Amino acid sequence: MCARATVVTGFPTGVNPVGTEIPIFSGDVRHDASADVRATLELNTDPALWPDTPTDLLNPYGTEVFVERGVVKGSGAREWVSQGYYRIDTVEQDDAPDGDVRVTGKDRMAGLVDARLESPVQFTAATTVADVFSQLVLEVYPTATIEYDWSAASTLLSGNRIADEERYGFLADLVKALGKTFYWDYRGVLVVKDPPVSTVPVWNITHGLNGVLVALGRERTREGVYNAVVASGEAPGATTAAAYAVARDRSPSSPTRWGGPFGKVPRFYSSPLIVTNDQAASAATQLLKRAVGLPHSVNFAAIANPALEPLDPVYVSYSDQMKSAIHVLDELTIPLTADQAMTAKTRDLTDIDVEVIP
Prior knowledge:
The protein is mostly beta strands. The protein folds into three domains: 2-107; 112-193, 3-Layer(bab) Sandwich (Phage tail protein beta-alpha-beta fold), CATH 3.55.50; 197-358, no CATH class. The strands form four sheets. Strands 1, 2, 3, 4, 5, 6, 7, 13, 14, 18, 19, 20 and 21 form a 13-stranded mixed sheet that branches. A hairpin with an 8-residue loop joins strand 6 (78-92) and strand 7 (101-106). It has helices at residues 109-114, 129-138, 167-177, 277-291; strands spanning 2-8, 20-22, 26-32, 39-45, 64-72, 78-92, 101-106, 121-123, 146-148, 161-163, 181-184, 190-193, 203-205, 213-220, 228-232, 244-249, 266-270, 296-302, 313-316, 325-335, 342-348, 354-357. The chain has four helices and 22 strands.
């Protein structure tokens, strides 16, 4: 394996940025699908890189680190897989002046979380979703690229809305109301799209001969599990009922099905950005699908695959005595050295038959 860290400035996009390469002594990239800031970085590097002056390379003044992990082929050529861009947040040296310099960073979502609005911003009913993202994101990152998997430029808010202090919070609420997810990907692009729902695994994590599985733990719990989502919004007019929908797990094979032995455990979600029953149904359905499989989770260590991302479905083959299954990656740690295994936390991909009312 091989790994590479490049310090960059100027907010580049893509997988071939120009910058200054620094050595990697140890470190990893950690992903969490449920966190506001989805990916974080920690790496140890050369003591000589300690930033003594404000103009030195590793100062936490907006500089980013672009990280890659890859493989060295038999010919000596290297194939890289990008792990994304990380704003330097902290530079530490426990054993000064000769100890390793430890750099920690966060992906570009941290900039949107930090950049709270100085005054409320009002969006009219004629504002599109793309307009909202352009205004709130480009104020922070003027050259950012934003990608959608639907026509966001023709999707209206359908009502006047005010973003108060929380820039990120307003965007996150809008994304959730649309039944979407958003994050900064490996190219440094902000993507807004449907969560992955494919049941076809992108990688097989197998045990035994020629397998990649190193260690495995498992758990079953009902804590934090629900089998229905009630989504509601605001009425578009004084004489119109508020938007409303309920999504329930009705699959006969689901162990947590609504009305089965598990019981009836609804979750309630409300947002002023939901103005139609269709929007309420979409939000309720996506929130319910994200809860599927939570009673059965596994923690595993395996030989690293740097192309994996949170929410990817993977096939986990435990052992000859245990049932294998497709799992969804919720948390993932990609090491930047060869002596560490990739670790992950997953949930079982249980079949679901969603009933939506109305």
